[in-house]
Design a protein that fits this description.
alpha/beta; 244 residues; binds manganese (II) ion; two-stranded antiparallel sheet
């Protein structure tokens, strides 16, 4: 099996080092990731300037690592082009969770999503972070277990996996959907100029069975996702109520 690994924190993040090392136990792995952090870029692609790729002097357990001056989706597209016969794309391990609404702007998830658009399985991994970096050695058995579970699932599919800092188990979950939790917070810079931060404000506890609920309760969350955003019930309703 050929595996392509990317992330949105950049090729020098400890998260991609951990994921590429674990992936190498499952197949021939290549890491292609942005040269600088591209978090919250969502599924942005670069089409108005050329992309370049350079080999990085990194050792992810024997995995070759390349850096690209682009987004996570660019990296998967370029990796897909240069390293044919990719069977699986992994994205992460992101330094920070990608739960519920975060999926909409997650560059980590977009890396996996780009692979699904090419027709192969894509799995995004993210971990909750505190004041210290995550303990990737302690998390590795959970990442490995998730890969064993998902690689065996039939067909191309998109999965969003979130790990708490110290997991106690694994749960199948659905996306937590609430009204958007982004908040604009104004501030003043040292020169007295007004500026703004786009922040995420804490929400009330999530419903049981959701991704947020799982991670808040110490479980690794695995959410299967669809690319089809069509609201099928509403479409059927509109077609019946107002046939065109
Ligand atoms: Mn990130």
């Amino acid at each position: 099996m050929r595996i392509l690994v990317t992330n949105d924190d950049g090729i020098y993040s400890p998260g991609i080092a951990a994921l590429a090392s674990i992936a190498s136990r499952f197949g021939k792995t290549t890491a292609v990731a942005p040269d600088v952090e591209q978090s919250s870029m969502g599924h942005a692609v670069t089409h108005s300037r050329p992309l370049s790729i350079k080999k990085a002097r990194l050792d992810f357990n024997g995995v070759e690592a390349f850096k690209v001056n682009g987004t996570p989706a660019d990296c998967v597209a370029l990796g897909w082009h240069l390293y044919a016969r990719t069977d699986l794309a992994l994205s992460g391990i992101n330094m920070g969770p990608n739960l519920g609404n975060s999926m909409w702007h997650s560059g980590t998830l977009a890396g996996a999503k780009q692979a699904v658009l090419f027709g192969v399985k894509g799995i995004a991994f993210s971990v909750s972070t505190g004041k210290m970096d995550p303990d990737f050695t302690a998390l590795a058995p959970y990442v490995e277990k998730v890969l064993q579970l998902l690689i065996g699932m039939p067909g191309p599919a998109l999965y969003n996996v979130n790990l708490p800092a110290r997991p106690i188990g694994i749960r199948w979950t659905r996306q937590s959907v609430r009204l958007y939790d982004g908040a604009i917070v104004p501030g003043v810079d040292p020169m007295g100029r007004k500026h703004y931060w786009f922040t995420v404000k804490p929400l009330a506890p999530a419903d049981e069975g959701t991704d947020r609920w799982a991670v808040e309760n110490g479980y690794v969350s695995i959410t299967p996702l669809l690319l089809d955003l069509t609201h099928h019930d509403q479409l059927n309703h509109m077609q019946q109520q107002n046939p065109l």
